[in-house]
Each structure stands twice: as structure tokens, then as C-alpha cells.
């Protein structure tokens, strides 16, 4: 049975402020369709790390789908997590409809966040489009691993949690239970975002820095060029129903 929790934010959140929805998926194979999403959970954070809601659900397996042999072999090494994701599994259509409604009731603009987004968003997008017909995150997902690559300068493939600065890592459990992992990676993202904001503030104080005054939710491009402005306008044309604007060359 799905479980949703919402908290009243400690401040009024503007409608254009981004809310970061950290999401974790547990599955029995690498792709949806041939394999099933067993459970998923999201933890919605403000940029200043306030948790304003969670949603979690265990799902019934898809008809005619089956577990991938390598994935099922891995699950045998995690019996507690396996048992947790098989408690009271729910019809995916029912769970995903409730989830989309939960996301759409969050304040601000929801942004899907995962580590790695390529896996989790693939499952969540497929399931939302299959069972609900829409995705409240539009066509995009924010990948924490890519953010780590940009912030640390490490090779992308080496941007794994044990190599990240320890100051980014809160003492939260990583159990392969979807809600635990969504909370953990959401806190990680917020810690990274806080450091990034500090870096941006430092840069903005440099003479001639053209990004000075840019805020977390500003629409103005950093470098102020006409081309960048046009790109920003095209990005704003993207919607959950239509996907990228007609002139976009790539999703996201």
C-alpha cells in the first residue's frame, strides 16, 4: 500500500521555486517492460534542505515480466531489502496515479533528482506514462552523479559516493529500501547544492563576473547573450504534456 506524507513548509514557497524530488527505484531488472519496478519512493526537499513530503509504494509485478537473472542474483544478497519491497504490493496503476497527484500538489515546480537519474527516471517515466499518461516532471531529470562530476573535477565514472567529499554525506542509512535511499540522496543533493550556491556567490563577487545577481530561480541567462536568452525561452516552453518545445533538438 502506498504511503504519502506532506508537511506545511516553514515559509511561503513561490510558485516558480524549484522543489527537488529525490527519487529511488528498486527493480528486478535493468529496464521497464521486460522487468518490473518493485518499489519506489520520493522525498521532496526545498533548496535549503527542508523536507516537505515523502511518497513510497511497493508494486505488483508487470504481467508477463520476469526478473533478470543477474538482478535476482544480487537480490539474494539483500534479503531484508527484498522482504521490505514485497510487503503489500499495490497495483501499479493505482499507486502511480496517487503519486502523480502527490507531486502535482507540491508547492513550487517539481524537479526529479536521482543518483543515477538514467536508471531511476527511466523506470518512473515509463510507469507514469504507461499508467497515468503524463509526467509532472516533464521530460527531464537532474543527475546527482553529473553534478558531482562538474563540482569535483573527477572523471565521471569515478564519481561514486565513497569518493565524494565526506562533508556532503549525512549520516543517513543506505539500505536499498526505496524511502531510506531517497532521503539519503536528497540530503546529499541539498548539501552539494548549498556548496554550489556558495561557489556561485564567490564568483559573483569577482570583478566583471557577468553572472552576478543570478538567483536560484532566475530566468535570466548567466552570460546575458541573445542566444542564451533564446535557449532559456525555449526551455520554458517545455511542458509535462507536450515535452520539449517544437524547436528543441533534444529532450531535457
UniProtKB/TrEMBL annotation:
Keywords: Exonuclease, Hydrolase, Nuclease. Gene3D superfamilies: Ribonuclease H-like superfamily/Ribonuclease H (3.30.420.10). It comes from the Bacteria. GO terms for molecular function: exonuclease activity; nucleic acid binding. Residues 233-252 are annotated as: Disordered. This is Exonuclease.
Amino acid at each position: 500500500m502506498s504511503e504519502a506524507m506532506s508537511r506545511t513548509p516553514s515559509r511561503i514557497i513561490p510558485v516558480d521555486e524549484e522543489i527537488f524530488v529525490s527519487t529511488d527505484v528498486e527493480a528486478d531488472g535493468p529496464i521497464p517492460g521486460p522487468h518490473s519496478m518493485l518499489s519506489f519512493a520520493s522525498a521532496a526537499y526545498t533548496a535549503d534542505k527542508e523536507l516537505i513530503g515523502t511518497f513510497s509504494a511497493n508494486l505488483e509485478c508487470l504481467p508477463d515480466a520476469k526478473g533478470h537473472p543477474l538482478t535476482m542474483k544480487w537480490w539474494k544478497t539483500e534479503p531484508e531489502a527484498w522482504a521490505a519491497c514485497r510487503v503489500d504490493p499495490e497495483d501499479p496503476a493505482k499507486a502511480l496515479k496517487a503519486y502523480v497527484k502527490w507531486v502535482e500538489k507540491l508547492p513550487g515546480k517539481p524537479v526529479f533528482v536521482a543518483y543515477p537519474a538514467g536508471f531511476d527516471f527511466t523506470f518512473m517515466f515509463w510507469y507514469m506514462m504507461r499508467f497515468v499518461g503524463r509526467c509532472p516532471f516533464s521530460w527531464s531529470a537532474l543527475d546527482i552523479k553529473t553534478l558531482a562530476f562538474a563540482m569535483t573535477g573527477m572523471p565521471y565514472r569515478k564519481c561514486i559516493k565513497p569518493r565524494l567529499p565526506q562533508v556532503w554525506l549525512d549520516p543517513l542509512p543506505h539500505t536499498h529500501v526505496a524511502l531510506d535511499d531517497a532521503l539519503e540522496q536528497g540530503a546529499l543533493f541539498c548539501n552539494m547544492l548549498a556548496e554550489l550556491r556558495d561557489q556561485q556567490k564567490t564568483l559573483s563577487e569577482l570583478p566583471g563576473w557577468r553572472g552576478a545577481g543570478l538567483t536560484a530561480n532566475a530566468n535570466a541567462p548567466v552570460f546575458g547573450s541573445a542566444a542564451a536568452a533564446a535557449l532559456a525561452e525555449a526551455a520554458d516552453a517545455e511542458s509535462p504534456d507536450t515535452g520539449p518545445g517544437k524547436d528543441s533538438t533534444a529532450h531535457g
